[in-house]
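INTERNAL AUDIT FORM
Audit reference: QA-55
Scope: verify that the stored structure record matches its stored sequence.
Auditor: D.O.
Record contents follow.
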Amino acid sequence: MANLLRLFFRVLGMFAVAAIPLSASASESFPGKTSDWHGFVRHDFQVKDIPVTVVRPRVALAGRPWVWHGEFFGHKPAPDIALLERGFHIVYVSVPDMLGSPHAVAHWNDCYDFLVKQHALAHKVALVGLSRGGLYCYNWAAANPTRVACIYGDAPVCDLKSWPGGKGQGKGSERDWKLAMQQYGFADEAAALAYAKNPIDQLAPLAAAGVPLLHVYGDADDVVPWEENTGVIDRRYRQLGGKITLIAKAGVGHHPHGLEDSTPIVEFIARNSPGTPQEFVDAALLPIWRTSRLTEPMFFLQLDPSAPPTAKLLFTPTKILAVTNGQRSQTFEPGRDYDQLGHSENLTLPSQSRIPFKTYDELYPLADSTTPQIGRQAGDKSRGIFFDNGHGYHDLQASVTYEFEPGAWQQPRPIVEDSALGRTRAKLRSGEPLRIFLCGDSISEGYNASKFTQAPPYCAAYGELVALALAQHAGSPIEFRNFAVGGWSTNQGLAHCRENRLGSQQPDLVIIAFGMNDVFQRNATKFAENIAAMMGDIRRESPDTEFLLVASMLGNREWGIPIEQFALYRDELRKLASAQVSIVDMQTLWEKLLTRKSYYDLAGNGVNHPNDFGHVLYAQWILVHLLPELAADE
């Protein structure tokens, strides 16, 4: 069951929505009393006379993501402990007898303002509603939909009539029903029964904001019957176009809460929250031509059984600082695990090496083998290409940190026009809030970034990296929404833009990144027409919106993708450039990279997605267009 759920979250194509706080470098000096909580520092203090608890991680992620409990903080703590280990803050506000009433929502608003404005926690928070905690989470979320990253409900109360009212299949609670009458100010029971602002009634704002939901429940619950609570949320949210995942526990009542293996809960919250290790944000802000130190992936391949497995770095190292596995959990030793060929950029693996590699037969398995693969159109067509849309390639790629001569990278570089994107750049210079939308395919959705596949070191996809880096560098509050969906071409992108009236939401900047799927249609003119139509539709309702159009990285030519089409598609994009529209040319960059590296060094899945290194490069090339000071040499 756990393995199936891991796979589900790895490949699920949900909208990922994130927003980034004012600063990623706020002090950890929370007020109040400190104590130990499962090996982490706990702070207890008050905000406007309301008790607040914050447990802070040892090292906070860039973006400072956090989890907010509606009730019963500390019960079943395994997910919280795992998230603290990843760099999340955990928060609880103690208003236990308010049952999510408007008074409770007001106190939550005060706490939110304090934590976000004074301590720079992320603008969007993951909410955890356990039992009656569902009332707090959903009612606050309905009042603040753009501040919510995701909601995890554990047997959550979603309708006062069900609990504590007991007006359906559940037992109810006479004491808490009277308390609800008082807290909500109902004149009588008839008014309580007619109340139309229960969580089940206030889902439209959450669906419109793209908030993903996860509910865990027991199908034998007779305290908070799932049909009257989670079941209603599920039906209504799907009808509104919202994304919800259910995990049922067969034969289980209201207790015990949680899951024996909390991995699906942790992965759901981590994937849908802003935040990534600081190193990746720093790397996004340090373009490859401005550095003499790099952390780079290597995929070792043994094409000839008589020769050692070999891989190649981008630059000739002056010093190799560290070689680890892709997940950073194992450090490799020179001589034992790898050798450098002279003073070249080539590394080889001795026979006793612990570094993984693939032989020719493993990388290109026979078509009738059971090895996960995708069809191969170039070379021996009786063989496929090893394919993994999770973290299979990530696990096979060694991570090498090394120094090289300054100025080793000269070309290509992004072409940045001084007069382009003036409104967006001005907002960033003055630290004003900025709303960024991303439309695209699976690359933009985040596929094969290690955060997306839930593998260490949890590098975020390029869109989130851009938002985090802008917040850090410019000090602007960044609201980032990712509308990209795996498998989409510009046909679906245009339809989504029109159906959802993206322009009505007044984005400052829209990044449009299609092409990997479009090239199969071999119609560059139609591709450009669709993108022009998307921009036109948005501008009709938001004439000041500016655009970044991304020419896609290359696919693997051995897969059979029409490589010759990429240049045609890029050239059509260039015709759309203007003062409000800049072109981000990832294709030319990939062409250069492939003169020095193998496709499998850069691949996230073997055929058409980048790995962490590729997502960082995407972010670098985009950021230079928004922060032109990065274009210059150091």
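Auditor finding: record pair retrieved intact. The CA atoms of residues 556 and 599 lie 7 Å apart.
Action required: none
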